Amino acid sequence: MKAYFVPTLKEGEKIFGIDFKPAGNGIKQGEYNGIPVFVTGITKTSAAFSAALIIKEFGVTEAVLTGICGAYRSSGLFVGDVVSIYRDFFADEAVFYNDRIVGLGEIGLDMPSAGASEYLCASDLPIVNSNTVSFLDGEGEISSMLAEKTGAGVENMEGAAFGYVCNMLGVKAYQIRAVSNFCGSRQDQEWDIKKAFVKLKSYYENSSLY
After folding, report:
1. Residue 194: half-sphere exposure toward Cβ, Cα within 13 Å
2. How far is CA 97 from CA 102, 134, 142, 157, in A?
3. Mean pLDDT score, 74-94
């Protein structure tokens, strides 16, 4: 079975224009063009729990995680750009020094797949790598360090964990995101969440991905 996943109810409602109902265990479910849509909750913890439960309970074999993300200014992306994510790093599961970030795998701790999850890519979108973070940088220095460390173009809060579950369970998975803001200083993020929602909605109305 194919399924869409979104981190928040608002993303599900705005992107797919559908209503949701409780599906148990705090998860909400809707349907778009005959394909189920599930709300996972934000952060790695919620995404991993929801993904594992839904995949097993509903027999999901193909999954699309979608929603908004922040872009690093070094990426050359703009607010509203829709991208397909290839590798998603557990970026802030690391040791932070004043001048560098050292991943947990680099200090000898066992990390999945070199500290990243992998997704299949949509051929009709720009392909980028992403950093999944739990710690949100409001000043800009840490965001810049993370971007330089992995070479990622965007940042989100669920992708690496969701992808890890799919990779471990043999589920075919994509991650499609629209840029809603820039990472870094809270004063310079240039949020336009409405534009990101409109671009994602248009993508799913016209894409041949599914």
Report:
1. 0
2. 8, 17, 10, 22
3. 95
The C-alpha angle with vertex 132 and arms to 146 and 162, in degrees rounded to 5, equals 160
Confidence at residue 104, expressed as pLDDT on a 0 to 100 scale: 85
Cβ neighbours of residue 101 under 8 Å, at least 6 residues apart? 92, 94, 95, 145, 146, 149
d(CA 202, CA 208): 12
Lowest mean pLDDT among 10-19, 70-79, 83-92, 106-115: 106-115
What would the two tokens of residue 98 be? 């004043």
* Interval 127-154 mean pLDDT: 90
Task: Provide the 10 A C-beta neighbour count for residue 156.
Answer: 26
CB neighbour list of residue 80: distance below 8 Å, 6 or more residues apart: 178, 179, 192, 195, 196, 198, 199
Neighbours of 170 (CB within 10 A): 9
Query: If you compute the radius of gyration of the chain from its CA atoms, what whole number of angstroms results?
Result: 16
Those residues whose C-beta lies under 8 Å from the C-beta of residue 198, and which sit 6 or more positions away, are 80
Classify domain 2-206 at the CATH topology level.
Answer: Rossmann fold (3.40.50)
- Per cent of the chain over pLDDT 90 is 76
**Cβ atoms within 10 A of the Cβ of 10, count?**
14
The Cα 88–Cα 127 span in angstroms is: 12
Confidence of residue 180 (pLDDT cuts 50, 70, 90): very high
Domain boundaries, the chain: 2-206
